[in-house]
Design goal:
The protein is 48% helix and 16% strand. It is α+β, with helices and mostly antiparallel strands.
């Protein structure tokens, strides 16, 4: 029955090959139907639409990534703290974009997030997210390209007729399969027929031969029983067993040939055939796949799987990083408000931190004073709890959002106390507030800043022209007087292209004070008042402060006491001695134009010459300037020269 099963398996295999060859020939001979063609065209159109959408999304992702790149590099690229190389633009290969960030760069970005500011973390995370979004969009675009190519190939196969060579090869394959099938069927039929007399004769001969062998073995055994040895007995028994087994097998074969196959034998053989055909089909498909190589779709799918795995890895790393509590800035932890096991919400302050070396002052500014303030303006801060000490400060932020309390509108302004070399940047402004301008001999600033004494540098380190020994010195483009002084203070050569005046030197005591960012006692020579010298401890958080900010400087202004100015019929006037009055008491009114005021003096912009004699209190007609000024709530905000610049109340933090 084994031969029949083998033959049936061969017939089934040949039949499958014949069917496949005939189907291939039929496909070549038959023209494609309208439904097949329309379906192929529709598939191409859909693939084109998907490709357009994928390309558009990839371009949008690229633009978004570029914007995130620019924001990150604009903010941190110039400070040499960026985790990626910000020079140039995102890389291209021909007309196609490539991944702008490598795995190493993304890993470096993640590592730099710890301990950095909130702004840095937001920009870096935006760059990482933009990079991932672009990777996904680019993978989708590649998939769309592959799908379109497959659809176009299918449509081309339907539209292009088969060549004569293709038809000839298909016909030859059908003929070969038909011949193989015919031979297999003939072999199976031959096995299924009743055994012939020749088959029976051969089987009987085999039985007779086995019987003869058995008889000979028995005779040999009897012969040996006369005086047999143990070895003789053993060999004889082995011979008998072998002969008996041979006889049994021959008899079974004869019986098999005489008995026709039943239904169970056929079913068993058919099952073996089906299993063999399935194994053959699987092996053939695997063989064809290996010969053809990986398809574009398979490659694209695996690439997409890799991309998705990379994204999952990045998300896992990001989630792991989120498990660590990182301060947005460097400082000292002053209070811990949470403990292990506590439940926290977004409104819970987990830790309170302070920055003793970067004290900020929160100011409340009226709406009348807001427009006169700008980021970068400098001044002095005094604290109620630190008597007699002035701290140099500079405005760092101005809020445009109003805060209304009991009908009074104020705006939040932040000023930072300056330390170290930062005071050099605003030295000229601080000198003006001290009441001396840029002339030598200001006791409120170091001699090396004001120009007083031997080797004075001159005021104006904030970008203006220097006075003193550095006056008239030509500076290369991009170099400021601050850079020159800072180099001298640090004992370094001056910037390239800068030549110091002959004999120029900053005394050691003044150099140490500049390096510490300290100021000498504030006020005129001999007056009381102490400025922060860089060695004192900064005020404690929460202390109340008053900040004086310089907002404007007027050159060669005419100043008069506010009590000398009055208003009548909408015009301002002052009272002067009447012409020809001599030593008499006659007076006359002179119409004038007024400018800024610091609350003590008022600027006269027109109508009065410098040095004129005024009569104060001689004329009581009209309204006093001071009264109108209080009604309009227009205090003199940092008006110089004359008086004291305007001040704002605030609290340190």
């Amino acid at each position: 029955m084994g031969d029949v099963a083998s033959a049936e398996q061969a017939v089934a295999s040949a039949l499958a090959q014949l069917s496949s060859a005939e189907e291939a020939l039929g496909d070549l001979l038959a023209d494609p139907t309208e439904i097949e063609t329309a379906s192929a065209r529709s598939a191409v159109a859909q693939a084109q639409a998907q490709l357009l959408s994928a390309v558009s999304h990839a371009n949008d992702s690229w633009v978004a990534l570029g914007e995130a790149w620019d924001e990150y590099c604009d903010e941190y690229g110039a400070y040499n703290v960026a985790a990626v190389t910000c020079a140039g633009t995102l890389p291209l290969e021909g007309d196609e974009v490539v991944d702008p960030l490598s795995d190493e760069e993304v890993e470096a970005l993640h590592e730099t997030l710890e301990g950095r500011s909130t702004n840095y973390q937001q920009l870096a995370n935006a760059l990482i997210d933009g990079n991932l979004e672009f990777i996904l969009a680019e993978a989708a675009r590649q998939t769309a390209v592959t799908s379109l190519a497959t659809s176009e190939d299918r449509l081309a196969d339907l539209l292009v007729p088969a060549s004569e060579e293709d038809l000839r090869q298909a016909e030859l394959a059908v003929d070969a399969a038909r011949a193989s099938h015919t031979a297999a069927v003939a072999r199976l039929e031959a096995l299924r027929e009743e055994p012939t007399s020749q088959d029976l004769y051969q089987a009987e001969q085999a039985v007779n031969a086995a019987r003869a062998n058995h008889t000979a073995a028995v005779a040999r055994l009897d012969q040996l029983r006369g005086d047999p040895t143990a070895e003789d007995f053993y060999q004889a028994r082995q011979a008998v067993d072998a002969a008996r087994a041979s006889h049994t097998a021959a008899a079974a074969r004869l019986e098999e040939l005489r008995t026709p196959a039943d239904e169970s034998d056929y079913q068993q053989a058919q099952a073996s055939l089906d299993a063999a055909l399935a194994s053959l089909a699987t092996a053939q498909a695997r063989h064809d796949e290996l010969l053809a190589g990986a398809t574009a779709n398979a490659i694209a799918q695996q690439e997409e799987n890799v991309r998705l795995a990379e994204i999952s890895l990045e998300e896992a790393r990001s989630a792991l990083a989120d498990l660590s509590v990182v301060a947005p800035f460097d400082g000292t932890v002053e209070a811990v408000n949470v403990h292990p096991g506590d439940r926290v919400t977004q409104s819970v302050v987990a830790f309170s931190m302070s920055t003793p070396d970067r004290m900020m002052i929160a100011l409340a500014v009226s709406e009348a004073d807001l427009l006169a303030l700008e980021v970068g303006q400098a001044g002095f801060a005094s604290f109620d709890g630190v008597e007699g000490v002035q701290y140099p400060a500079r405005i760092v932020s101005i809020s445009r959002l109003p805060d209304t309390a009991q009908g009074v509108v104020t705006y939040g302004v932040e000023a930072r106390i300056l330390t170290g070399a930062e005071t050099v940047e605003v030295a000229s402004q601080l000198a003006v507030i001290a009441g001396q301008g840029v002339v030598p001999g200001v006791a409120g600033l170091p001699e090396s800043v004001t120009g007083a004494g031997d080797g004075g540098v001159g005021a104006g380190f904030g970008g203006g022209r220097p006075d003193g020994p550095l006056a008239g010195m030509e500076l290369p483009e991009g170099v400021t007087i601050q850079d020159v002084v800072q180099a001298v203070v640090n004992g370094e050569p001056p910037p390239e292209g800068v030549s110091l005046p002959e004999g120029f030197e900053i005394p050691l005591q003044e150099r140490e004070r500049l390096a510490a960012g300290g100021l000498r006692p504030l006020g005129r020579q001999g007056q009381a008042g102490t400025a922060w010298d860089g060695s004192r401890v900064l005020p404690a958080p929460g202390m109340s402060a008053t900040v004086t900010i310089l907002t404007e400087v007027r050159e060669e202004s005419v100043l008069v006491p506010v009590s000398a100015v009055r208003q009548l019929d909408g015009e301002w006037f002052v009272t002067v001695p009447a012409a020809g009055a001599g030593a008499g008491t006659g007076f006359q009114r002179v119409t004038v134009g007024v400018g800024e005021s610091d609350g003590v003096n008022v600027e006269i912009t027109s109508g009065l010459e410098n040095g004129a004699v005024l009569l104060i209190g001689a004329d009581s007609v009209g309204i006093a300037y001071r009264t109108i000024q209080q009604q309009d709530s227009q205090p003199g905000l940092g008006f110089v020269p004359g008086g004291t610049p305007g001040g704002f109340g605030g609290g340190g933090r």
